[in-house]
Amino acid sequence: MTPAPDSTPTFQPVAPAARLLQLDVLRGLALLGVLLVNLDVFNGAMWARDAKLPVALGWGGAVAEAVVRIFLEGKAAALLGLLFGAGLAIQLEGADRKGRGYTAFALRRVGALALFGLAHSLLLWNVDILLDYALISLMVLPFLRLRPGRILWAIPVLLAVSLAIALPFLPLLKSLEQDAVGFYNLGLAHYGAGTWLEALKYRSWEFLHVLGPQRLTSRLPALLPFFILGVYFWKKGFLSEPERHRATLRALFLACFVLGLLANLLPQATLHATVAGIPQPFRALIKLTAFFARPALTVGYAAGILLLLQGATGRRILGVFAPLGRMALTQYLLQSVVCTWVFNGYGLGLYGKVSVSACLAGGLVFFALQVWSSRLWLARFPVGPAEWLWRRLSYGPKPISPVLPNLATQEPA
Asked: What is the pLDDT of residues 150-171, one digit of tens each?
């Protein structure tokens, strides 16, 4: 007698045909911002700027640098954080539908992401974002079941926790700022001219003494609210059914994009000088509004893209980035593989030798290749190699292998 098949509901990753185009497009476009911002660190320009050393800008480099700083710096990583928060809410809903416990699975998934981040930080590039996402995910998990009207209250609670974590590390970062030139020269010697092993040793020291404290003092409070916003956006239906929320998305776009753009265009020194003669508490209110308006540009981007995707032309143009969004982890890691080889001493050794404009032009060409290679890969395989490994570590051995042909015919991209 043949035994009956096991009907116990199990966790399974989202099938290609069931994926939402808007989430993959948002993720793919965010990767463009991440690459263009990170190039400033890969080539050493950010550290040189901190040390007040001259930086080669190249033709149009000053304008390009300003565009990246105003429109992308801090926003691309925040947009990915918003999508990651939405992903947590999506997985919780899936677990509830199947009647399965979510916590154990979530911890496995976050733990696997932390392993990716640790390997990425030590072996390739320690300005990694994956460890940040893993840590923030752990902090967000207890709030996932709150109703949409209440979950936003988790933001001040978690910010207070993150600030308490950050306070002990502030003196260490202050001491590093006092020798910014020496710190830049260390990077130039180990990354620009050193072997891979020399870079590894310095990267490990930097991971513990520089990037680790920076992760806790700046990235944690900056990214954490966007995870909660991602959960809120998903629960409200902004991401799953944007066509039903056109009016709200338009209002979000107009308010967040306009206010965010103005806040990012206005230098902090100019703002402080402008409001100096205004009496309190109005001066403090203006400064506080500008402070929160700067990251609001990210919400404006998300709302604007969701609106554009509701038209056939927008879907056709922006849908090009969807395959890249499906392979976001693989392509993010590939950016580090290629850029460290280009700039570090064990590769082409261009650290500190390439102008800002040349870096950004090369970055745009490389991103175009990433878009093309993602579509080429997904024409044959269901998922990217890093995504496949993450699924194996999270779901167990059942998720489909990337060596199988992709038979899905209803891909939104």
From this structure: 999 999 999 999 888 888 887 7
